[in-house]
Amino acid sequence: MIERRPITTFLAHLTLLLGVALVAFPIWVTFVASTHDAVRMTHIPLPLLPGDQFFVNLKTALTESISGAGSLPVGLMMLNSLIMAMMIAVGKISISLLSAFAIVYFRFPFRMGFFWMIFITLMLPVEVRILPTFEVVANLNMLNSYWGLTIPLIASATATFMFRQIFLTIPDEMLEAARMDGAGPMRFFWDILIPLSRTNIAALFVILFIYGWNQYLWPLLITTEKEMFTVVMGIKQMLETAEQSPDWHLIMMTALLAMIPPIIVVLSMQKLFVKGLTETEK
Amino acid sequence: MLKRVHFSPSTLPFLLVAPQIVITIVFFILPASQALYQSFLLEDAFGLSTEFVWFENFTYLINDEIYLDTFMRTAFFSFTVAFLAMSTALILASMVDRIIKGVIVYQTLLIWPYAVAPVVAGALWVFMFDPTLGIFAYALNTIGYDWNHKLNGGEAMTLVILASTWKQIAYNFLFFIAAIQSIPKSLIEASAIDGAGPLKRFWTIIFPLISPTTFFLLVVNIVYAFFETFGVIHAITQGGPYKATEILVYKVFYDGFVGLDLGGSAAQSVILMAIVIVMTVVQFRYIERKVEY
User: Fold this and answer.
1) Cα–Cα distance between A265 and A270 in angstroms, integer?
2) B63-292 belongs to which CATH class?
3) CA torsion, points A126, A128, A134, A139, in degrees to nearest 10?
4) Could you tell me which chain A residue has the CA closest to the CA of B185?
5) Which residue in A69, B48, B220, B263 has the most C-beta neighbors within 10 A?
6) CATH number, domain containing residue A108
7) pLDDT tens, B18-34?
């Protein structure tokens, strides 16, 4: 910066600390609530400092069925969420890589037609076509299955666009050299394209994992059997019964458990996350 | 588009695009055209007979005061969320630009709400504002304000806006940081030599130069508020009290799955699709303009 005035630097830090407090306070309150027992959580004012029941609540939430959650332990719901998030992230990346490869490296009839067909998926978020999509999935007998949860969300224009951009920046000499050495298309794809776009794949994976983990409306419609519930849905179920018996300490423990995997992914891969976010969405 | 050097035609490229195309047709194009078709149908209360009614569902919606109310409410909600989330993020981002030490620490502490699912964000805020137990409700109570978002529509809307804004700050923050840091330092230095103070520099140099990012974020934020806040609303108010927080997406879901008015819900879906398409086109025009300069 230009001038060094202690007062402005101080003000900047003060504003930022205030911002951090604003952003972190709800998460702190959640954490505190998850460390107290049921009795303490019915006395106002509620505590602002953590108690000593964290591991007791953790064990209860992970292994026992909580009232209103459809009697599935949170541990199993998290497993469902994990499977769904992984299937969506891996599925989106694989089919996008393949179709971007075809569109950039092959000349074939309807190439542009296919490209535009993929492009329009960008314009139709799940929320605006829920009812007819639900009917399609129901007719295909995919309700209450991992396939029904993930496949309708797998087609992705953004990922295809991103890989297309990356492939276009790879020099033509790569392909010429590969061909001279006798490599076929699939060999070129595996041994040259995939290694060259490795960081982009990782960055995209971070974004898509969070996208998949946080899905809510779609699992809500597709799953009616409790064995298939995801943790993000489970919280809503618990909130509904909170009207009668507010087990806030367990609800907040579940909320904490639902946040932790994506937060860990974001914080541990912060560089990749920022790269993935600012590059794919632009 | 196509590489100068490319593979010769074969069946392989068809096999490669097949998975993406099949999924697109089965789960995107078919349902979307079905929604379009269904929006022209009127079904009787028992689902026994359907009648082709052309644009009746649409004219009904346009003349329906409840729908227009929902529309205005959605617009108000979206612009408020976009404005609050973007201005908070911009303030924080410009402050981060001023400091030297601790940039990564602040960034780390500010970005994590991005990872929180909307419905979980809703659960957090509904807990803090729970009329009988919540910390903020208690604090408001001690200063003599009786908070109850379950009865008061205005308070319910405030809570939904707060929760939606909170979740979106992180996203805007990252984009603003990237935009501010890409401004050439020489411009800032030149204006400082000319005697412009920090605030003047912000309004005359930084703010105009990041306007493309601001515009991009405005579109993204409005799309977010239109669609992704479904989880927040479903967790906090379920559209209530008395539809005070029912936005368009919520109404599509409610009319279709709870009210079972398939034609009406489909017509609403079609209107929403039109809105999304317009916004996507606007966004793409922006990107093209950016590529040119």
Assistant:
1) 8
2) mainly alpha
3) -100
4) A1
5) A69
6) 1.10.3720.10
7) 888 888 888 888 888 87
> Domain for residue A132, yes or no?
yes
Residues in chain A: 282
Q: Residue written as tokens 């040259």?
A: A192
Q: Please tell me the distance from the alpha carbon of residue B244 to that of residue B233, in angstroms, as a whole number.
A: 11
Instruction: Name B43's bridge partners.
Output: B50
Question: Is the complex ipTM higher than 0.85?
Answer: no
Residues of A in contact with B256 (CB under 8 A): 130-131
Is there a contact between B24 and A117 (Cβ–Cβ < 8 Å)?
yes
Contacts of residue A1, Cβ cutoff 8 Å, sequence gap at least 6: B98, B100, B188
Q: Do B32 and A132 touch (CB under 8 A)?
A: yes
Residue pLDDT, tens place only, A220-251 = 888 877 777 888 888 887 777 766 666 777 88
Its domain, for residue A246, covers 68-280
Residues in A touching B119 (Cβ below 8 Å) = 216, 232-233, 235-236
Predicted TM-score (pTM) of this structure: 0.85
Dist. CA A136–CA B6, nearest whole Å: 37
What is the total count of domains within chain A? 1
In a domain, A179, yes or no: yes
Tokens of A80: 């469902």
pLDDT digits (tens, 9 = 90+) for B216-269: 888 888 888 888 888 888 888 887 787 888 888 888 888 877 777 777 777 888
